[in-house]
Every structure is written in structure tokens, then in C-alpha cells.
Amino acid sequence: MPRRVAIVAGEASGDMLGAALVRAATSRFPGTEFYGIAGPRMIAAGARTLVPMEKLSVRGYVEAARSLPELLRIRSNLASRLAADRPDLFIGVDAPDFNLGLEAKLKRAGIPTVHYVSPSIWAWRPGRLPSIGRAVDRVLTIFPFEAAIYEKAGIAATYVGHPLADEIPLASGRQEARAQLRLRESSTAVALLPGSRRGELESHADLFIETARRLAARRPGVRFFVPLATRETREFFEARLYAHEAQSLDLTILFGHARLAMQAADCALIASGTATLEGALARCPMVITYKVPALTYRLMMRKALLPYVGLPNILAGEFIVPELLQEHATPENLEQAVANWLDHKVARERLQARYDAIHAELRCGNDERVAQALAPWLSNGATHAPQPLHGEPELAAVRGR
Description:
This protein is α/β, with parallel strands linked by helices and about 400 residues long. It folds into two domains: about 5-165 and about 365-380, Rossmann fold (3-Layer(aba) Sandwich), CATH 3.40.50.2000; about 170-360, 3-Layer(aba) Sandwich (Rossmann fold). The chain has helices spanning about 10-30, 40-45, 60-85, 95-110, 130-135, 145-150, 165, 175-180, 200-220, 230-245, 260-265, 275-280, 295-305, 310-315, 330-345, 345-360, 365-380; strands at about 5-10, 35, 50, 90-95, 115, 140, 155-160, 190-195, 225-230, 250-255, 265-270, 285-290, 325. The strands form two sheets. Strands 3-2-1-4-5-6-7 form a seven-stranded parallel beta sheet, with helices on both faces. A six-stranded parallel beta sheet has the order 10-9-8-11-12-13, with helices on both faces. Helix 1 (about 10-30) crosses helix 17. The longest helix has 25 residues, at about 60-85. It is globular, with a radius of gyration of 21 Å.
């Protein structure tokens, strides 16, 4: 009989991972129904969303505090709905601050729980391990060193690799990408990725535009590509271009296509996050930056265990690409860091070897590993149609919305 799986993702990176999981599970276990809180990629893969995922897309302590009442209401309603509905399995995709509390409630109610994507316990907040153990039946990790940490703590864990590593070819695809963007071999291209959420653009758009202006002044003819996934973020970035009177920049805003931009670019300036891993897999030299409110940054740094935040550096175990954060994130510093990559071919070639090693380690058949890890719960089950959350609009549960 068809299985029913409740699933929650909280932002774009979780939506990408969740979509790959939904496709893998429904391919291996036809008829499995996914519903909960999903983004556009998960919806396209077949999941139904009961609440817009954007309601969970909050970054930082300060911002989360402002949204806390609504987030708690959503989580309480969802917990009540699922406790009554009793799906065969609940999967929380990343978003640990939201999902772990929900998973703990559901596990106490006798509903199996899986958390997909380990919280960064190896980078900060290692004290979370006991609460994770109480909340989940198994953790699916996307980085190879994580599973051993959980097993040592007595928490069942399975390393499943990263779907992007399987999806992105080992060859760089640079020539094809440049052809699609109509770039000559002699042209210099820089990808600008200021973030996927409106809040990130509010922090980064002006910084990225001023950095681009400095680069263009130093290197006439440089072309910029800015992949933005939503109409809201595109309109916001365009408004900031006009505010800075930067319309003369040779800058193209792309509707998504972040990977294409990074494959084609000679260097990328990226707001820290999953995009940095995608950039590494696309073999793109990069400069990582990020700015958050000062209080949020101080709270995060107090708990940090590693000296770096970017995924390429974390996976390499050392700085292989520069990180310029907070007060160090100035147009002058970022322009110089990008120029360093553009000026040093040997450094770019050395970086490719480090990227190759990261890609090979993460490329291990994510689809099959995810399906195998979920098999104990998806091999059996009974059908039961999910209903919209109490107090949430009916139309939110329509597939494809």
C-alpha cells in the first residue's frame, strides 16, 4: 500500500535536497506520498505543501526572534496535525531549529523520525547531540566525516553523499557554459551570488554592486552574471542597481542558472551557504563573504569551533578559498580578493585539484543510499490523505502551487 511521508524543508538548499530525496524515494517505492512544508523544487518532484516554505526562511538569531511567534504557531499546528494523521515517517530536511523540536514531539508520539542533513555540530554547538538523539531515529548525513560522530554518541546515522556531487559531471563544463552565455574565451566573467533570500540581498546587494563597480573600473570589459531565483529578489537587486546608478555595468541578471553562471565564470563572489559547495563542484574559483547583524554574528562566533564557514574550506580542512566576513567584507577587500584569482592562473589550477578531491569524496550514489536508508519505513504503510493545517488556507495544499 502507498506510504505517507511528512516532510519539512525550510529554505532553498533544503528544498534542493528534499526534491532529490522525494525523487529517489518515489522511484524506489512507487506511490509514496510526500506532504508537509515544501519549496518549489520539492513540489515539482511531487510533494504537497501545506504552508509556504518562505515562512520558515529566516536567517540569524535577531531575525528569528522577530518571527518566533509565527514559527511556533506553524510548528504547533503541524505537530498536532501529524500526531493525528500518523504518517508512516517524518523527515526533517535541515532547518534544525524548527525541525528538531518537531521531530522530538513526533517521536514521543510514536511516529518514526529521520533528520536529513546534520546540524553543524562539528563546527559549533556540539552540545546538541543528546537532544538530537532524543528527537530522531536516524540522521542522514551528506558529508563523510559526520556519521562517525553520531555513531560514537549512540545515534544511528547513515552517510548518503550529496546529490549535487552526483548531478554535476566531474568534467567542468566550462566551454559549454560559456557558449550558452555567449562568452568569448578571452572574456573575463564574474558570477555574483548575493544570496537566495530577500534578507540576504538586503545585507549584500549594495556590497556586491559596489564591488562590481570597482572591478569594472579596474578591468574594463569584465562581464557580471547575477543568478536570482525569484521575482522578488530580482526586482530588489535591480532597484539597488538604479539606486547606485550602476546601470552601465555589463551585468546580466539570470533567472536561476546559478550553476551555469559559476561554470562559465572565471571567479565568483558568493554569500556563504550551499552555493559555495555548488561553486566548488562547478570548479569555480571563489571569494566567500557574508554579513549579518552584529549581535547575530557575535552570538555565532562565541559557539564556533572551526576557523572557517565556507563549505569548500570545511571539507578541505583548511582555507583553500578566501573568506571575508562582517567588517572585513568591504568593496575594497572583495574587489582585491576577486582580482587575485583573476590574476593568478597557477593558483586557479592548483585549486582545481582540491575541488576534484572534494567532488570525488561526495560522489557516492546519493539516490540509492537515500532509498536504502529509508527502506525500513517505506517498505510498508497504509494510505491516508493528508489535510491542510488548522488555520492554513486550503489552496496551500494544492500540488504545484
